[in-house]
Amino acid sequence: MDIPVVCNLQNKKGFTLIEVLIAILVLAIGLLSLATLASTVMNGNAFSNEMTTATTLAQEKLEDIQGQGYASASSSSENYSSITGYGAYKRVTTVAADTPATGMKTVTVTVSWDADAHSVALKTILAE
Amino acid sequence: MSGLTQRKQKIIGGFSLVELLIAIAISGIVLSAVSSLFIMQNKSYSVQEQVAEMQQNARAAMDIMTREIRTAGCDPTGSANAGIVSAASDSINFTQDITDDAGTGNPDGDTADANENITYSLYTSSGIQKIGRDTGGGNQPVAENIQALTFAYYDSAGNTTAVPADIRQIELTITARTANPDPDYTTNGGYRTCTLTSLITPRNLAY
Asked: B126-153: string of b/e by CB count within 10 Å (b at 16+)?
């Protein structure tokens, strides 16, 4: 009588070790992707903050040049850690005289950060 | 008969106590991992939401204010005597002649119409510090949760000045902060901040 009982117990359905391991692996991948999502959101926010700061810095320079007037508009360069309060940013101002026509100056301000990995460029044209 | 009954009972599928204990232990470990992940995600979500809002506040305030201050002193008729009225380090009052009594958008030679006499300053309402725009009817909020608002004024030579008539450029600094303190962030009482600085050259002040 005992033998068929043992046989029946052994036939009982269940999970094999491999199945359980695969299930855990799938769960782990799912959870990991959620964790990645959080860090992606943080990176995105940090990047948009840097982008805003860089754009504002570029705008500031353009306004500065507007204020100085046409005659004194000239190229300049502020390297990393030379802008007070915004050491992580580099600002390069290029003034091209007589562009796009005589009596005009094209001013391009490029603000870079993250070792030049990212940059924002603003452009304006001054008339004499 | 009794032997048959016993056998049938043993055939019915089920878990032994040991299996059950192991299953509970494993699901406990998995659940604690999932719940701690949820708590972490929830915290990070609320912080990042506030950080995004803070950046939007700073950016929007900077955009609105630079745009409007740039038109300070707009005086096409030459008789409105528009310009910067008072220049303090924490507020600015300026006038512009951009419309008439009917609001048609035609300058009428005075600065007494809607949106022509503007004051920007910090004020507190409902316990929240905001940038207020006052055109005579009291402060209207421009941006909320602002920690600091600073103005610096420069004359045509680029030196700081306090005389409203000499002002040619205005440096505007806005520091926005998160709405609620984060206990895990120890600096600045738990408030994250975002500071933007820009220079404004009002187009009409030089003439």
From this structure: eeebbbbbbeeeebeebbbbbbebebeb
Q: Which chain B residues have a beta carbon less than 8 Å from that of A53?
A: 196
3-class SS at A64?
A: helix
Nearest CA in chain A to B205: A67
B17-50 as b/e, with b when 16 or more CB fall inside 10 Å? eeeeeeeeeeeeeeeeeeeeeeeeeeebeebbeb
Q: How confident is the model over B140-185, as pLDDT tens digits?
A: 999 999 999 999 999 988 899 999 999 999 999 999 999 999 999 9
* Cβ atoms B37, B45 nearer than 8 A: no
Residue matched to tokens 């032994």 = B16
What's the ipTM? 0.78
DSSP classification of residue B185 = -
| Identity of the amino acid at A71 | A
Q: Min CA distance, A98 vs chain B (Å)?
A: 23
Tell me the CA distances in angstroms from B29 to A34, A35, B26, B34, B95, one per residue in order: 18, 18, 5, 9, 67
Question: DSSP letters of B80-142?
Answer: S--SEEEE-SSEEEEE-----TT-SS---S-S-STTSEEEEEEEEETTEEEEEEESSS-EEEE
